[in-house]
Design a protein that fits this description.
This protein is an alpha+beta fold. Helices cover about 20% and strands about 25% of the residues. It is globular.
């Protein structure tokens, strides 16, 4: 039963993240060149545009998307980073959404608000530094290779149009620093 809940939580996190590209966009115009091997923006894989499979035409994107390299600093109301943490001993899922101005929201597994707050200028600067050093465009979409941590967490990150995920033991130090710069995933 716990495996089912973990799989359900990961799938829920992926669904939540898939719809959270920059400015509400699901990617598309800012996809890397086909065959580049680079990870694509959220909702895409290399050479595939959201909603299409290789070899098919992409559907028109009614929302203009922002090029992922245009600005490292989102507008105050735009999402800076979204991180979903699932699993652990209790098998819970929590999502943190941090906006460009440092305001944040904590969501439960049903995407209902659990709490809000605002990072200090120092905390926001530390988070921005950690995100920049994490180099999302250069990372594989799924971090692998670390030791298995039983009852560990699975993290799914979305930043600047890119999605990266991995189990707790497989996260590289740069992504661990992002997690450490975030507000707490649970209250108390």
């Amino acid at each position: 039963m716990r495996t089912f809940r973990t799989v359900a939580a990961v799938l829920l996190g992926a669904l939540v993240l898939a719809g959270c590209g920059p400015s509400g966009s699901a990617g598309g115009d800012d996809a890397p060149p086909k065959g580049s091997g680079a990870p694509g923006p959220i909702g895409t894989s290399a050479g595939t545009t959201a909603g299409t499979s290789p070899g098919t035409s992409p559907s028109p994107n009614p929302t203009p998307s922002r090029n992922a390299g245009t600005s490292a600093v989102p507008a105050p109301g735009e999402t800076l980073v979204r991180v979903t943490r699932s699993g652990g001993f209790a098998g819970e899922t929590h999502t943190l959404v941090v906006k460009g101005d440092g305001s944040w929201s904590r969501l439960d597994a049903k995407a209902e608000a659990e709490g809000t707050g605002k990072l200090s200028e120092r905390e926001l600067a530390a988070l921005r530094t950690a995100l920049r050093e994490a180099d999302f465009p250069g990372r594989p979409r799924i971090a692998t290779g670390g030791p298995k941590i039983y009852d560990g967490f699975f993290y799914a990150f979305a930043h600047n149009g890119y999605e990266v995920a991995g189990e707790q033991g497989s996260l590289p130090p740069e992504l661990v620093r992002v997690v450490e710069a975030l507000p707490p995933f649970t209250a108390g």
